[in-house]
Amino acid sequence: MRKEISLKTDKGEIGIYILATPEDLQNLRFDPQFREHTHYRSLYTRRQSLIIRAGEADSNVVIALTEAGTIIAFGMVVYPDPAERWAHLKPKIMMEAKAIEVSRDWRSVGLGQAIARGMMAHPLVEEKIVYMVGYTWTWDLEASRMTPAQYKKMMIRLFSTVGLVEHPTNEPNICLDDDNLFMVRIGKNVPEKIRTDFKWLCFGQYE
Question: How far apart (Å, rounded) are the C-alpha atoms in residues 63 and 16?
Fold first, then answer.
């Protein structure tokens, strides 16, 4: 069931939807800044993409929106694609903190932290291993005026506030760039065997 909170910012009061449903998203629209820029492309640019994610099992789509119904930030916790390494851990216990993004016009007012907190408000969070992957090629380095190393530090600070920590892995795509990032939060109710299996999985060992 969707939860709604309010966030006061320097630019006005913002609504935060946690566990947004497909029905919640039907009549909303994306801020125009979610589009393709010269050196950066938003990962999600259509409302329908969020609607699909919100309809998936156990998903948690979190959005920030203005009083006019414009989506200015979003993030989600979803199961990994079946082809990804992280889908091999059984039972179905790994979920990805995916695609957190704030409109360029609304950055630096606390929306990133609000979205991250909403993502970790998932009702199953203590039963799951939640991970996030940060690829330098998906980061808005142009608007942030940061180097990849600086942006990585910012992402670490953001996700560490909701319990994720850096974790070693030899996953090839992550290892392509030293500034790529892999962070993990292991729920307190995850069994010890699953924790051990996860450690092996991080280095490509799984049944």
Answer: 6
pLDDT band, residue 45 (cuts 50/70/90):
low
Q: Which of helix, strand or coil describes residue 17?
A: strand
Measured CA angle at 72 (ends 4, 95), to 5 deg: 65
Q: What are phi and psi of 62, to 5 degrees?
A: -115, 130
Residue 206 maps to a domain: no
207: in domain = no
The CATH number for 45's domain is 3.40.630.30
Specify the number of domains making up the chain: 1
User: CA-to-CA distance for 14 and 146, rounded, in angstroms?
Assistant: 27
C-alpha 38/C-alpha 49 separation (Å) is 22
What element of type H or E holds 118? helix 111-119
The dihedral sign for the CA sequence 72, 156, 93, 85: positive
pLDDT digits (tens, 9 = 90+) for 84-114: 999 999 889 999 999 899 998 899 899 999 9
Full residue range of the structural domain in which residue 97 is found: 3-201
